[in-house]
Amino acid sequence: MGSVAGKTVLITGAARGVGAEVAGRLHAKGANLVLTDLDADPLDELGAGLRGDRVHTIVADVRDLTAMQAAASSAVQRFGGIDVVLANAGILTYGSVLEVQPAAFRTLMDVNVTGVFNTVRATLPSVLDRRGYVLIVSSLAAYAAAPGLAPYNASKAAVEHFANALRLEVAHRGVDVGSAHMSWIDTPLVRDIQADLSTFGEFLSRLPLPLNRITSVQDCGAAFVAGIERRSRRVNCPRWVGVPRWLKPLLSMPIGERPVAGLVPDLLHRMDAEVVALGRSMGERTESVEGR
Questions:
Q1: Is the pTM of the predicted complex or chain greater than 0.85?
Q2: Which of 25, 212, 241, 262 could pair with 236 in a Cys bridge, judged by C-beta atoms 3.0 to 4.6 Å apart?
Q3: Catalytic residue flag (residue 152)
Q4: 9 - beta bridge partners?
C-alpha cells in the first residue's frame, strides 16, 4: 500500500488507547479517518482534536451488525469507499473460569469475536472494491495462555484464525489481511486491571523477561501504522512477540507452561478473591459502556 495519504481507514474502538494513537498517526500522514466507538464522549474529543474534513466519527456498537453496516455506508458516502479496516475494538475480563461472571464472558465474546465478524462483514464489500487491507487485532494471548484470562485468550485465538481464513478467501481478489499481536500495552484496559487487582501487578512482576514488560501506546501505534503501510500478514509489538508464535506448540506443553503454571497455586485464588470483592469481572468503565 505504501503511502496512506488519501486512503480511507475505518477504525473500531477508536476513542482511546491504541485506536486513538493509530488514528492520530494516520491523520498526520494524510489519511481519511472513519472512527467508531461506543463511548461517545472520548470519541467526540478525539474527532475535535484531529479536526478537519478528513475525520468522520460514528458512535456504533460492533456487536450490532446493522449499526456497523450503517457506519460502513456512511464512510462510503463521505469518502467514496474504504481502503483499510482496523478491527481494534476489544475488552478484557478478570477471574478464573470458576469465578468470571457468565454475563461478562458473553459480553467479551460478543465484542471481541462477533464484533470482528460484524466489522469485516460490513466493510468488506468496499474493501474488495478498493483491493484494500484488513488488520484484525489479536494478541500474544493467541500464542500463549494466561491463567485468570481464559475468555480473553480464547477470543484472541479465535480472531487470529478468523484472519487466517479471511486471508484465504480474499487474497485472489487483491485484498490483504493481517493480524496484530501485542504483549502488555499501556492502554486503559491494562491500567484498569492494574487498578482493580493488586494480584495482576504481582503476576506481571513475577513473569520472566520480556513477558513482564509493558509497551507504550506510542510504540504500539507506530507498529500498527507500519503494518498498515506494508499490508503485513502479522504485526508483532514488541517484535519479540513473533517468537512465541513459532514456539506455540511448545508453550502448550508442560515444559512451556512451567514458568506461568508455577505462579497459579499462590496467585489465582487471591485474584479470584479480588474479583469477588469487586463484584464485577471487567473494568468499571468497560462495564458501564459495554453494559448499555
A1: yes
A2: 241
A3: yes
A4: 33, 84
